[in-house]
Amino acid sequence: MKKAVIFDLDGVLVHTDRYHYDSWCLLTRQLGIPFTPAQYDTLRGLSRMDSLERILALSSRQFTRAEVEALAEEKNEAYLKRVEQMGPAEVEPEVRRTLAGLREKGLLLAVGSSSKNAQLILRRVELTDCFDAIADGSMVRRAKPDPEVFLKAAQLLGVAPAEALVVEDGAAGLRAARDGGFQTAAFGGDAAGSPLADYDLTRLTQLLELV
Ligand code: BG6
Ligand code: MG
């Protein structure tokens, strides 16, 4: 029995995964660190700092805490420049159709994102009102693959984890959802084909048949 669907944001509801990748590339080029889309795939769902630490581990250089903080800030500034250009047209019609269809079926809807920019992005693309709850990176101490953000979303919705389906493009997010006791659906990214997923979606509208 499914009472709720909890969506990851970046790479599921919007294509901000591309903007994250492009912003990391600005940094890695500057630092001479080779960085590919496949490497970004392994960072899907991780917090800004955890992602940066993984990227810097690819370099032979050592970085001071102050340098790491400055690089994180620089990446976020580059990312926000792209986010500022986002508008409602960036949401695929399929996403809006799916959210409306799930609502009609009586499902509760939430966002569970590691991003500290989640609220801003949802406002920019005019999706905020589609959700009954939003849990994001500013509300938790531990980011994915820890289940905290999904547990927070479930708590805000007033449902038990087993009653909610989490939709993710990141393997780290699937791990988080699994460990939290949620049902899981993979949607692209490095989540696709993962054994951690109960369902593997190629289109978001498939959710309408699952619930
Ligand atoms: C996740 C993305 O949703 O949010 C990661 O998949 C990103 O790539 C993380 O690093 C943190 O985002 P932000 O916006 O707080 O830097
Ligand atoms: Mg994602």
Please specify the SSE layout and strand pairing.
Blueprint: E1 4-7, H1 16-31, H2 37-41, H3 48-56, H4 65-83, H5 93-104, E2 108-112, H6 118-124, E3 133-135, H7 148-157, E4 164-168, H8 171-180, E5 183-187, E6 199-201, H9 207-210
Parallel strand pairs: 1-2, 1-4, 2-3, 4-5, 5-6
**How many domains is the backbone divided into?**
2
Structural class: alpha/beta
Bound molecules: 6-O-phosphono-beta-D-glucopyranose, magnesium ion
Strand order of the largest sheet: 3-2-1-4-5-6
The profile of the biggest β sheet is:
6 strands, parallel
CATH architecture of the largest domain: 3-Layer(aba) Sandwich
Helix and strand sequence: EHHHHHEHEHEHEEH
CATH class of the largest domain: Alpha Beta
Helicity level, as a percent range? 40-55%
The percent range for strand residues is 5-15%
Rg, please?
A: 17 Å
CATH fourth-tier homologous superfamily of the largest domain = HAD superfamily/HAD-like
Which geometry do the CA atoms define? globular
**How confident is the prediction overall: mean pLDDT?**
98
Describe this protein's structure.
By secondary structure, the chain is α/β, with parallel strands linked by helices. β4 (164-168), α8 (171-180) and β5 (183-187) form a beta-alpha-beta unit. The longest helix has 19 residues, at 65-83. A six-stranded parallel β-sheet has the order 3-2-1-4-5-6. The protein is globular. The protein is built from nine helices and six strands, in the order βαααααβαβαβαββα. α1 (16-31) packs across α4 (65-83). It folds into two domains: 4-15 and 90-210, HAD superfamily/HAD-like (Rossmann fold, 3-Layer(aba) Sandwich), CATH 3.40.50.1000; 17-83, DNA polymerase, domain 1, CATH 1.10.150.240. Helix content is 44%, strand content 12%. 6-O-phosphono-beta-D-glucopyranose binds at residues 9-10, 20, 43-48, 51, 76, 113-117, 137, 170.
